[in-house]
Amino acid sequence: AEVAMACLAVDPAILLVMVGVLTFLITFCGCVGSLRENICLLQTFSVCLTIVFLLQLAAGVLGFVFSDKVSKIINGAIMHYWDDLDLQNLTDFEQKEFSCCRGVSYKDWSQNIYFNCTATNPSQELCSVPFSCCLPDATEAVINTMCGQGMQAMSYLEASAFIYTNGCIDKLINWIHSNLFLLGGIALGLAVPQLVGILLAQILINQIRDQIKLQLYTQQHRADTCY
């Protein structure tokens, strides 16, 4: 179960599918509930939207409090680098974007069975790192995917002439600290529509209930008048 959860945490495709299915179900409840004036579906929409909002808030808080979990996720991504193309592309993009090479340092790639730096490793990528760790070379017209060959066997000073030797965790933390206002604006932009949706759903539910009460009162009043 732990292995399955680890694979799930580092697989972007599965996460995107789950988010898409959840979004569809929530919007379906809200759309059909408002069209049919169905209180049950509207309440489901409101509750689900509230849960999603609280989960986003909790995820943001836990991301800062339990930063060591980020390291575990990154290590999981290292081990499954060649197993998932989406994860591979995401990892390469991250390393090139932040000019870093995996978690703490470029030698973290030894956790991957193909990049492992032990003498018993039969892989041709023994002691290597992915090409996305390499320093950009403006003179190269075509990317050299073997530029990280044997870099883990070098010292930090030697390897720094060819690849990024710093890990991505510190780079990511520094980027977050430098872009707190941007991240706050994005979080606010995501939270406001959710809160508005919850508020509108509750208003519609109250209006439907008031209409039901009014109809019952009218029917009862007409029945009393007949007597």
TrEMBL record:
Biological process annotations from GO: pore complex assembly; protein localization to plasma membrane; protein maturation
Sorted UniProt keywords: Cell junction, Cell membrane, Cytoplasm, Disulfide bond, Glycoprotein, Membrane, Transmembrane, Transmembrane helix
Disulphide bonds in the chain: 101-117
GO molecular function: enzyme binding
Membrane topology: Multi-pass membrane protein
Transmembrane regions listed in the UniProt entry: 13-35, 47-66, 180-205
One GO location term (cellular component): cytoplasm
Family annotation (CDD domains): penumbra_like_LEL
Main location: other
Compartment(s) where it occurs, according to its Swiss-Prot or TrEMBL record: Cell junction, Adherens junction; Cell membrane; Cytoplasm; Membrane
Family assignment from sequence similarity: Belongs to the tetraspanin (TM4SF) family.
Protein name per the record: Tetraspanin
Organism the protein comes from: Podargus strigoides
Gene: Tspan33_1
